[in-house]
């Protein structure tokens, strides 16, 4: 298990608590401190005193791809899971991951699972959409099963890769910080001859903070999608991806203010939340 972390003192504790509830199914937890300037490292050390499977790796070069690489390189397990530091694994997540690879064909090199925002006013809609997406995919590709073994992408916030696959793609992944690192990795996985799967039982919840960033930042974030395909020489897919880019930008504009105003503790929207100070997620950052 690899967890890249940059200034996550407010979330890393609960994230680790969720993993400790499943620790019997987890070989190791590697938290990569990517030059945090807050109390992230201190929080991790407190958890280390409770659980010897937790260790810290420090990666001084800023950026999620460098933190991911440091964590994957340090991992000793045959299956290397990854969750973002603001992402909470639901009960049964680790068992579902093990069950997936126990049943998966040898050609499967990576897996992802459903990911829904826990602090969004649209949480229920996200979850309903994910359930329908899973039902459709399973009915088409694996009726009666709980997994699909050939999809295009494994989002980095909730995924795992085999050690064999990582060694095959490590030298292929780009070091550019202006592209989608998880899409880049997924493309490299397929280029190396592996497939990517989806487990219907690997549910995790993540922060909606990306959707709270200002429209200018989100606009730049979405521009990474076609750029990633162009880096891989896939001009056709780059052009096709602009439909996704523009639809996501429009959805962000429509939902930005309600998402910023939402108070997850009360379940209501408020002006106080709307004007709260929150750092935008920096492009290329963890």
TrEMBL record:
Keyword Transmembrane helix applies: no
Residue span, Glycosyltransferase 2-like domain: 2-117
Entries under CDD domains matching the protein: Glyco_tranf_GTA_type
One term of GO molecular function: glycosyltransferase activity
Pathway noted in the entry: Carotenoid biosynthesis; staphyloxanthin biosynthesis; staphyloxanthin from farnesyl diphosphate: step 4/5
Compartments reported by the entry: Cell membrane
Keywords: Cell membrane, Glycosyltransferase, Membrane, Transferase
Domain of life of the organism encoding this protein: Bacteria
Main localization of the protein described in the UniProt heading: membrane
GO CC annotations on file: plasma membrane
Family to which the UniProt record says this protein belongs: Belongs to the glycosyltransferase 2 family. CrtQ subfamily.
Function, as annotated: Catalyzes the glycosylation of 4,4'-diaponeurosporenoate, i.e. the esterification of glucose at the C1'' position with the carboxyl group of 4,4'-diaponeurosporenic acid, to form glycosyl-4,4'-diaponeurosporenoate. This is a step in the biosynthesis of staphyloxanthin, an orange pigment present in most staphylococci strains.
Protein name: 4,4'-diaponeurosporenoate glycosyltransferase
